[in-house]
Write a structure and sequence with these properties.
There is one protein chain. This protein has 315 residues and is α+β, with helices and mostly antiparallel strands. It folds into three domains: 77 residues, Helix Hairpins; 125 residues, Sandwich (Immunoglobulin-like), CATH 2.60.40; 90 residues, Cytochrome c-like domain (Cytochrome Bc1 Complex, Chain D, domain 2), CATH 1.10.760.10. Helix content is 36%, strand content 22%. The chain contains six helices and 14 strands. Strands 1, 2, 3, 4, 6 and 9 form a six-stranded mixed β-sheet that branches. A five-stranded mixed β-sheet has the order 5-11-10-7-8. A three-stranded antiparallel β-sheet has the order 13-12-14, with no helix packed on it. Helix 1 packs antiparallel against helix 2 and helix 4 packs across helix 6.
């Protein structure tokens, strides 16, 4: 074993041991089967057996090759169950960060209510259990951090039904890739973010700073703050770039062709259209885009602020 092995989370050693165990068993089976094949080729070739003969069954051998694989499978199953139970038993003192997923974005809500999305990633303190309730607003996604050996499906569930969950405890400082490991549509490969691990003092300083910056921006430009915290900019750019949805830049006052109940019609983007698109996103779909935006739990004041920000980007 590598004495310099420095696991990124508390799950690494258990998961890696299971994989190494399966790998070694597979190697032994490969060597054994290959060796038996070579032995059989030599012993029973035409030169050594010029006159073919039938081989009768051997009850002892049949029992052996039934019992040994069963023991190996149960052995592997035992370590797999131990690792799975560890991943499902969340420590009582774990910090909760809610994770929401949609096509094709992530949103993270911290204990103080701060919301961040795909671009910012998730930030956590090291050596602290992190409990992650997982919720999807559309299809099945999968929360996967390879370095932490953590992967769990993010499933859409009706209100009142408990969401799926996972947890981890990071033991290395740094930034680690976060993927969706369940194919969820044409832009599945773009559903990439980061988990940033800081020391506990640095995390608290980061959280305080991010919260203060958000509140400052919320006071100065609430619409812009909301498009960041609610994850709008994951699908709608502010510089004209075409993403999953239309860009906010130059949108207000623009003439668009939308599809309403399967019928194309031309509209001018105004406040009424924007409000309807936010509250009922499947009502009028801009032609050329997919109906992927979920309804957002926004107040009337928040909707008005977002519309004002979109108008600013069109001036």
């Amino acid at each position: 074993m590598n004495v310099n092995y420095n696991p990124a989370s508390v799950f690494n050693q258990d998961v890696d041991f299971s994989f190494y165990l399966i790998f070694m068993i597979s190697i032994l089976c490969l060597v054994g089967i290959t060796g038996f094949m070579v032995f059989s080729i030599i012993k029973y070739n035409r030169k050594n057996n010029p006159k073919p003969s039938n081989l009768e069954g051997h009850t002892g051998l049949e029992i052996v090759w039934t019992i040994i694989p069963t023991i190996l499978v149960m052995f592997i199953f035992y370590f797999g169950v131990q690792g799975f139970l560890k991943m499902r038993n969340v420590p009582e003192d774990a910090m909760e960060i809610k994770v929401e997923a949609g096509m094709w974005w992530w949103k993270f809500t911290y204990p103080n209510g701060l919301e961040q999305s795909t671009a910012q990633g998730m930030t956590v303190p090291a050596d602290t259990p992190i409990y992650l309730p997982l919720h999807s607003v559309d299809v099945v996604h999968s929360f996967y951090v390879p370095a932490f050996r953590v992967k769990m499906d993010v499933v859409p569930k009706p209100a009142g039904v408990k969401d799926n969950y996972t947890w981890f405890e990071a033991s290395q400082i740094g930034s680690f890739d976060l993927f969706c490991a369940e194919y969820c549509g044409v832009n599945h490969a773009q559903m990439i973010s980061k988990v940033h691990v800081l020391t506990k003092p640095d995390y608290q300083a980061w959280l305080d700073q991010q919260t203060a910056d958000h509140e400052k921006l919320l006071a100065k430009n609430p619409g812009k703050a909301l498009t960041i915290s609610k994850g709008c900019i994951a699908c709608h750019s502010t510089d004209g770039t075409k993403l999953i949805g239309p860009s906010f830049k130059g949108l207000f006052g623009k003439t668009e062709t939308v599809v309403t109940d399967g019928v194309d019609r031309e509209i001018t983007v105004d406040e009424a259209y924007l409000k309807r698109s936010i509250m009922e996103p499947a009502k009028d779909i801009v032609k050329g885009y997919q109906p992927l935006m979920p309804p957002l739990p926004l107040t009337a004041e928040e909707v008005a602020a977002i519309i004002e920000h979109i108008k600013e980007l069109s001036e």
